[in-house]
Amino acid sequence: MKNFSTVVTRAAAAALLACAAAGAAQAAPTCNFRPDAPDRHVVVKRDTLWDISATFLQNPWCWPQVWGLNRDEIRNPHWIYPGQIIYFDRTRGRLSLSPPGAGDGRGEPPLTRLSPQLRSESLEREALQAIPAGAIEPYLTQPLVVEANELAGAPRIVASQEGRVYLGEGDRVYVKGELKGNTSFQVFRPGTVLKDPQTGKVLAHEAAFLGTVTLVAEAKPGVDAHTFRVADTRQEMGVGDLLVPAPPAPVRNYMPHAPERPVDARVMSIYSGVSYAGQSQVVTVNRGSLDGLDVGSVLQLYHLGKTVPDPAKKGFLGLGAGKIKLPDEQYGSLFIFRVFKNVSYGLIMQVTEPVQVGDVALSPE
After folding, report:
1. Which residues of the chain have pLDDT under 70?
2. What is residue 27's three-state secondary structure?
3. N or C, where is the chain less crowded by C-beta within 10 Å?
4. Smallest Cα–Cα separation from 299: which of 355, 228, 229?
5. What is the DSSP string of 12-25?
6. Residue 71 CB coordination number (10 Å)
7. Looking at the DSSP assignment, which residues form a beta bridge with residue 172?
8. What is the domain-level CATH number for residue 276?
9. CA dist., res. 17 & res. 79, Å (int)
């Protein structure tokens, strides 16, 4: 077989490591190598793990099975950096960071003695990202989805400094509600209702992110409101707007893998309210952590099969023709990057047709 050498990205390499671990948690989906897979890849900056896996595998999310990672190693993966080489061991059908026949077969190279070196950046910052981080950056720390049980009893702004209508950075606001020990909050205004397309049940509200506020002083005995200061604003905020605790800094080593158990979801909305979505756009699905989804889960996208007249079973005088249900058509993949209890946000990774509300999102086969 002819040898090939291809330059690829850090992020793709990390993703490859992660995909390899997914198969053990459920019936392992089929992960086949591409017929034209190269013998090796040299990792360079600006690559992503997803890209690297797509170079070797027919399904880019299939790292875990070809690297032999377990579930813990998906969540805390080995890092891959520019300059490293990913080898395709054709004999064993595995990927490795050491040449075929060397190392331990798990991608660990033989022990090498290194001389002390100075680094200007932390290793973690240099490591490859699994997917293009810029595509989801705005969605990582904003509320986006506020589930029904979070709306009840959420702290709210009840007054502003000197009765100001328009609030800016540094202004004081007064908040009523239980803080539960939190000091930094995001301010939001409930927006679009998210309904399960299968049941019609309201699962959550999409929230308009307005900015952040920080606690100055808790309410003293006999006082009903806490004092906050506006840290930053994205949109106008004012009396009646609600607060949710600011989430912790997001983990960025997203490792693609199949869900822990079978998931049957539907595309519930397309972010920004458009009718159709394409690659690198964001959608919500009507399943979350309670249904087995976690960050890095990959789902396959399908258009619902149409029902068409059966040409062989026409009724009397051509009326009342029989119906045939066509199969659902698989046309792309969805990478889950933020998970709530009943709702999740996903990045569209690969599609051959536009994504629509109501499309099916299933665990990989």
Report:
1. 1-30, 64-65, 67-79, 102-130, 132-135, 138, 143, 148, 249-254, 313-321
2. coil
3. N
4. 355
5. HHHHHHHHTTGGGG
6. 14
7. 229
8. 2.40.10.410
9. 9
